[in-house]
Write a structure and sequence with these properties.
This protein is of the alpha+beta class. It folds into 4 domains: 37 residues; 146 residues, Nucleotidyltransferase, domain 5, CATH 3.30.420; 97 residues, Nucleotidyltransferase, domain 5, CATH 3.30.420.40; 71 residues, Alpha-Beta Complex (Actin, Chain A, domain 4), CATH 3.90.640. Helix content is 33%, strand content 32%. It is built from 12 helices and 21 strands. The strands form 6 sheets. Strands 6-5-4-12-13 form a 5-stranded mixed beta sheet, sandwiched between helices. Strands 16-15-14-20-21 form a 5-stranded mixed beta sheet, sandwiched between helices. A hairpin with a 5-residue loop joins strand 7 and strand 8. The longest helix has 17 residues. The protein starts with a strand and ends in an 11-residue tail after the last helix.
């Protein structure tokens, strides 16, 4: 039997102002000397990444750098070869404009994964883009999920992030991450109410002592706003418009509360009567009418959560107000609409769209508490 000699030599080197350790392992026998190398970070060993895996957008937060990526959750795929042609903003530009052999898809719907394979490939692309492509460096990843997520949905997110290159994957509920990202101290014994309006879901939660006291997640958010605008244009103006046009209308003249001055915008689409291209002018007043139904549902959900809140926490919320986060918080007048319905002061976080991503990144500092969190406990099969 051959005698092998294993020798590990550690050489500290600097690469772009980052400290690494080069581990050179020598394996020696009678005739050969072979060595393999692997490089690890000496400080923390891995990057720590927070991901807001949203229906409309994916945001990536890297510890020490902040939000480094904000791209649409869209992937363009070649039907014939199954090859990914574009991801993110470039793929979003292709929505509704692709030839028959190319499809632009959103792999997430209503806040959960609808196409596992495409989601995994999209995540892998974003992780490599932000963390670099390395065989040895695998980041610890924190991913946000809607409150009330099922076991199947939770496992799908965890496995997709692991396959995409995560060394360890942790899950966190979106309202908690949004509260942390908004700069609120969730550890205090005070009631905090968060309404996180994303692309696929709206999460309403009351938080105290670092945990959720009561919450509701509904599949009414930015995507439903777009659908409501498309439906209104078909019904009232016999005009068929696409998702991108509806989103543009929502962002420019969409409103949840009457504006002081009526805003007008030109809208182009296909006339359902003649089948020809048509252009008409739409006012912000019409947009408010179009968005009334989904907005009313969000207001009712907020009211329902307040009804289930313990009285002591209700008193705290009455004093501190309700915090709005998520991309949906940017809709004009939505804070006034919710305030009118609940009778409680509503304020919008400083950077509502990035709150969840920032919160996931900050939460990685308390990794021990997160590992013991109910979301990250693996249940035995028997």
């Amino acid at each position: 039997m051959k005698n092998f000699l294993f020798v590990d030599i550690i050489i500290k080197i600097n690469v772009k102002d980052k400290k690494y350790a080069e581990y050179i392992s020598y394996i020696r026998d009678k005739s050969t000397l072979r060595y393999t190398t692997r490089r690890e970070k000496t400080l923390g060993f891995t990057d720590e990444v927070g991901i807001d895996l949203g229906t409309a957008n994916v945001l990536v937060y890297i510890k020490g750098k902040g939000v480094v990526l904000d791209e649409p959750s869209v992937v363009a795929i070649n039907r014939d070869t199954n090859e990914i042609l574009a991801v993110g903003e470039e793929a979003r530009q292709m929505l509704g404009r692709t030839p028959s052999n190319i499809i632009a898809v959103r792999p997430l719907r209503d806040g959960v994964i609808s196409d596992y394979d495409v989601t995994e490939r999209m995540l892998k692309y974003f992780i490599r883009k932000t963390c670099g492509n390395s065989r040895f460096f695998k980041p610890r990843i924190m991913v946000c999920v809607p409150s009330g997520v099922t076991e199947v949905e939770k496992r799908a997110v965890r496995e997709a992030a692991t396959q995409a290159g995560g060394k360890a994957v942790y899950l966190m509920e979106e309202p908690v991450a949004a509260a942390i990202g908004a700069g609120l101290d969730i550890a205090k014994p005070d009631g905090i109410m968060i309404i996180d309006i994303g692309g696929g879901t709206t999460d309403v939660a009351v938080i105290s002592l670092g945990g959720i006291v009561t919450s509701t997640s509904v599949k009414v958010a930015g995507d439903k706003f777009d659908e409501a605008i498309i439906k209104y244009m078909r019904k009232e103006h016999k005009l068929y418009i696409g998702e991108r046009t509806a989103e543009e209308m929502k962002m420019t003249i969409g409103t949840a509360y009457p504006r002081e001055e009526v805003v007008v915008k030109e809208c182009r689409g296909r006339d359902l009567v003649t089948g020809l291209p048509k252009s008409i002018e739409i006012t912000s007043k019409e947009m408010m009418e179009a968005l009334d139904e989904p907005l009313q549902m969000i207001c009712e959900v907020a009211h329902g959560v307040l009804e289930r809140t313990p009285p002591e926490l209700s008193a705290d919320i009455s004093n501190s107000g309700i915090v709005l986060t998520g991309g949906g918080a940017l809709l004009h007048g939505i804070d006034k609409r919710i305030e009118e319905r609940t009778g409680i002061k509503v304020w919008i976080a400083e950077d509502p769209k990035s709150c969840v991503a920032i919160g996931t990144g900050k939460a990685l500092n308390s990794i021990d508490a997160i590992e013991n969190n109910q979301l990250n406990k693996r249940r035995p099969y028997i």
